[in-house]
Amino acid sequence: xxxxxxxxxxxxxxxxxxxxQSILTLINLxxxxxVIYHREKDEIITANNPLFLLTNLGESDFVSKPIKNxxxxxxxxxxxxxxxKQALLRHKKQPLIPVNVRIxxxxxxxxxxxxxxxPASREPGKSSTAADQTELIHQLNTLxxxxxxxxxxxxxxxxxxxxxxxxxxxxxxxxxxSGSKPQLIQYATNLKMDSNDLPNLLTSEELANSQMPFxxxxxxxxxxxxxxxxxxxxxxxxxxxxxxxxxxxxxxxxAGGKIPDQNPNTLALAQLITSYLSGFLEDQIAVNNLTNLxxxxxxxxKIQNEIxxxxxxxxxxLSPDLTIAEINPAAETILGYSNAEVLRQHVDSILIGSESLxxxxxxxxxxxxxxxxxxxxxxRRNGKSFPAQVMVIPVINNDRLLSVIALIQDMSEEEQSLxxxxxxxxxxxxxxxxxxxxxxxxxxxxxxxxSLQVMEDNLEEDHANRKWIENIRDECNKLLYxxxxxxxxxxxxxxxxxxxxxxxxxxxxxxxxxxxxxRLNIESYYESEVVNPLVEGDQRALDQVFTNLISNSVNAMxxxxxxxxxxxxxxxxxxxRKFYEITLTDSGHGIPDEIKAHLFKPFVTGSARGTxxxxxxTQRIINAHKGRLEVDSFTGGTIFKIYLxxxxxxxx
Length: 652
Hints:
With 652 residues, this protein is of the alpha+beta class.
């Protein structure tokens, strides 16, 4: 008969109101109390007349409210697992009514369901008591299982909901002591904080008055502030149990209901629940403390690692048996090994020196720090040796050796620094002597120039000696230019460092040289692969650097013309990432090998017109800017590479 049912159903054209009325008509035909419930919203939609008659409740008492308002101890609303189980039905004036709950789904997603409630026949005997005990044990087991695997806040709310169900209560909540003020704050509840009838704050006096578990019922006069608040909200019972140990109470567990308490074990159950909650909260406090301690340790370790990573000295962290556990980046640079390569290697196979280091490490194993002599020489991975000093420090805790730390200082850098200081001192002396010398030489040259002018004025314009006077004047000018160059090289360097835009500066220099380049038939090419390439430098000094280099290239191509190229780019080498690379190429005759080896020394030049000081001054400026100047020359061209440090504020 049901095969053609869908055809007949298509004849039903019902509005929303007609459909709702039809459902109400159908459930009113059910002789037992019945309820339609929305599971996802936890909201009672409607009920049939037998339910209103049995409970003496009105629609406002439970319709559009959670199912707990009608079935306070119902724990499972699933049509399969919760079907045909026992529950307690609320009555307006009488004790809770035991019912058998049958659950039927009204939609394919099980979000709207039908409860059919069969009042249980409470016959005196052991079977009824056994069923109650079984249900109680089941609920207690569910409560205990809610201990892990979820978010703490969600888990605590679930535990309180289960506690409310066990106690047939409307609300179950926790008040915790505040660390900053002498008061108790409602910390968690099974209901929304803003929708329950109990106060959010209690004075510390309330905890002092609740040192013992207590069950208040409506037939007793309210004494405490909590009891008075519960009575005014029409609660029929309120149970309070302190949280914590006897000597360290930290809060209250409170549960109350608007249906008279009929369970003789309510106070005992509340104490059991409170013991469980106390352990749960104390465990969480311990976990939080452990997490905070772990985070602090991680922070300290991170700071320590940052310090070690940024030390200029090499650091080797060794286990007590002197195998390497870790080395810092400075040690990798000094020794030429990566951290992965030396891991678990014995220190003797990595620190190889001119003298044995066994004694200093043996002393460290015995708890004594020591340092090598200043004459120690260590070998890098590539075989090259360098002067070093090694300090070995034991790390001991409770007379137990935990680790050994070796600090390596590369003394070659100190020697270079000492040599640089001596060079600066010599240069200062040279500058002072040169300034005096230049002053003394300029006076005779100026006197010669004046004498030449007088002689020239006394000669006829076509006099044969005029050409000799002109030659002498040219030589005097060369001497003056040479003295200016010597002074420029010898005087102390004082730079005003700031951010310099290489792109803008080089563009202006090339524009300045363009007329001469055109006259000498030299083509120029310029390219910047970097947007806004800012470097740390002195604008005038860097202008002189590129002017000197371009001048050398132009002189090398002045006879036959050629091409001049300038390019700004990022360095391809990882160690040069902090520099911009400026490449200057020309198609000149190249630099002879005998000059190339001494190219940056004063007075070395391959040009008949040069003084030999231009490249020496250029290199001095680059060195003062903490950069680098490289040259590669061959027959048919020369390539200069200039490395200048990026400006610290640059985002490139």
